[in-house]
Amino acid sequence: MKLLLVEDDPTMQATLQRTLGRRQIDVRVCGDGAEALAAWQAIDPDVVALDLNLPHLDGLQVLSQARAAGLKTPVLVLTARGTVGDRVLGLNAGADDYLPKPFDLDELEARVRALRRRHRQGETEGAFGAADVGGLHAGPDNGAIYCRGQVMDLTPRETALLRALMVRPGHAVPKERLFELVFPGESDVQFEAVEVVVYRLRKKLAGTGASLMTLRGLGYLLREEPVNRAVE
Asked: Per residue in 87-101, is it b (16+ CB within 10 Å) or e — as a string?
């Protein structure tokens, strides 16, 4: 696979090119925000790893311009900025995932490969877009989930699970299928880990107009919560 690394630190560039290159990932680098969009279009990468602190043009501006130009390559934002507000800004600009520095190289590789798989799967299943459920809306381009126009603060795994359920609201999705989507290629993860993601996501859905239900023996489904009408 081909990864475009937009990062101005020469040491980081060399480390990732050497390490990921040994793992069959072809890393192309660009160290200038002003040149990043042209490099992106010329290289046509499978995934872009984008630092936010770039010379001449901020990473968020690069990302916004790329999305405006119709580039749908999945983007992993790499930055020392670790607050929730910064993550939301990145998602609003069109990022697909967020990895704060310093990071583990194994985790970086896993996230990059997961983004590529999800993007390819999305192209295959693109005809079946996620439906709006309650106050929830799935962004078609950046992978974010919105609640009444505001980006929800979800982890990548919570987002993957929720998007899978939003494809067919009111219909059960088997636990096995959700595991494949939420933990792609992660053979060291226990099957029950899906339940942990479901538990956390269920809490975050409170007040959204949508609820996550468990159907024993069938899986999980997302449904729109009924409106409670006052009794006169």
From this structure: bbbbbbbbbbbbbee
Are 81 and 40 contacting, i.e. CB atoms less than 8 angstroms apart?
no
For residues 16 and 97, membership in a common domain is answered with: yes
Give the sign of the dihedral formed by CA 179, CA 159, CA 111, CA 143. Answer: positive
Q: How far apart are CA 150 and CA 132, in angstroms?
A: 14
Alpha carbons 35 and 56: distance in angstroms, whole number: 9
Q: Which residues pair with 27 in a beta bridge?
A: 3
Range of the domain at 76: 2-124
For the whole prediction, is pTM greater than 0.70? no
pLDDT in tens, 99-118: 888 888 888 998 898 888 87
Number of domains the chain contains: 2
Per DSSP, 87 falls in state H
Specify if 130 maps to a domain.
Answer: no
- CB-based contacts of 223: which residues, under 8 Å, 6+ apart? 133, 169, 170, 210, 211, 213
Report the SS3 class of residue 63: helix
Mean pLDDT in consecutive groups of 10 residues from the start of the chain, 232 residues = 94 94 94 93 94 89 89 87 63 79 87 81 51 81 77 88 86 86 81 91 92 88 69 38
Residue 129 lies in a domain: no
